[in-house]
């Protein structure tokens, strides 16, 4: 009998946070839900964080994922962008901890290489491969595709017993 796990990938952003829920049953992965949370641009950063948290919390309550996968931070030239992204990641990690999810982080290069075979893959290449692997049509945004890629990558890497926290 194969074990079933619900995995939530989240691509953090202060203006667009992508989420993707994948169900892993043995070697097979299936998309359960995905989308993007867009806080209004006129909101304060604190309000954007609340909107992201509450939006993701509603999804967590509905889908009940056991695992949360988030992209680890990488080098930023703009320190303000890094600060805002760190704040969004913080509320996402808080959500995962609050709901008792196992939390994993991977670098963008790990995800790209694992999904496309090329660590410097473009957003379009990632979108194409995620859609192909999950048999999806019309992924709406790169943020949604990246979130699904996070969940999908963890689904595959956990089969090998190589997942890193």
UniProtKB/TrEMBL annotation:
Cofactors, names only: Mg(2+)
Sequence positions that bind Mg(2+) 1: 11, 143
Gene Ontology molecular functions: crossover junction DNA endonuclease activity; DNA binding; magnesium ion binding
Superkingdom in the source lineage: Bacteria
GO biological processes: DNA recombination; DNA repair
SUPFAM superfamilies reported for this sequence: Ribonuclease H-like
Catalyzed reactions per annotation: Endonucleolytic cleavage at a junction such as a reciprocal single-stranded crossover between two homologous DNA duplexes (Holliday junction)
Free-text comment on the cofactor: Binds 2 Mg(2+) ion per subunit.
Keywords of the record: Cytoplasm, DNA damage, DNA recombination, DNA repair, DNA-binding, Endonuclease, Hydrolase, Magnesium, Metal-binding, Nuclease
Active-site annotation: 11, 71, 143
CDD domains hit by this protein: RuvC (cd16962)
Class of the enzyme per the UniProt entry, highest EC level: hydrolase
Residues binding Mg(2+) 2: 71
GO cellular component terms attached to this protein's record: cytoplasm; Holliday junction resolvase complex
EC number(s) given by UniProt: 3.1.21.10
Pfam families: RuvC
Subunit structure: Homodimer which binds Holliday junction (HJ) DNA. The HJ becomes 2-fold symmetrical on binding to RuvC with unstacked arms; it has a different conformation from HJ DNA in complex with RuvA. In the full resolvosome a probable DNA-RuvA(4)-RuvB(12)-RuvC(2) complex forms which resolves the HJ.
Function, in words: The RuvA-RuvB-RuvC complex processes Holliday junction (HJ) DNA during genetic recombination and DNA repair. Endonuclease that resolves HJ intermediates. Cleaves cruciform DNA by making single-stranded nicks across the HJ at symmetrical positions within the homologous arms, yielding a 5'-phosphate and a 3'-hydroxyl group; requires a central core of homology in the junction. The consensus cleavage sequence is 5'-(A/T)TT(C/G)-3'. Cleavage occurs on the 3'-side of the TT dinucleotide at the point of strand exchange.
Family: Belongs to the RuvC family.
Protein name: Crossover junction endodeoxyribonuclease RuvC
Source species: Desulfomonile tiedjei
Gene from which the chain derives: ruvC
């Amino acid at each position: 009998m194969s074990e079933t796990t619900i995995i939530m990938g989240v691509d953090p952003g202060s203006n667009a946070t992508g989420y993707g829920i994948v169900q892993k049953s043995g070697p097979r992965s299936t998309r359960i839900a995905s989308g993007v949370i867009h806080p209004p641009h006129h909101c304060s950063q604190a309000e954007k964080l609340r909107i992201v948290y509450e939006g993701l919390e509603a999804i967590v309550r509905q889908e009940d994922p056991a695992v949360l996968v988030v992209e680890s931070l990488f080098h930023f030239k703009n320190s303000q962008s890094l600060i805002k992204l760190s704040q969004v990641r913080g509320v996402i990690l808080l959500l995962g901890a609050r709901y008792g999810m196992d939390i994993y982080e991977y670098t963008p290069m790990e995800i790209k290489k694992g999904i496309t075979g090329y660590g410097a893959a473009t957003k379009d290449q990632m979108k194409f491969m995620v859609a192909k692997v999950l048999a999806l049509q019309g992924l709406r945004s790169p943020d949604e595709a990246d979130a699904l890629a996070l969940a999908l990558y963890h689904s595959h890497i956990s089969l090998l017993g190589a997942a890193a926290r």
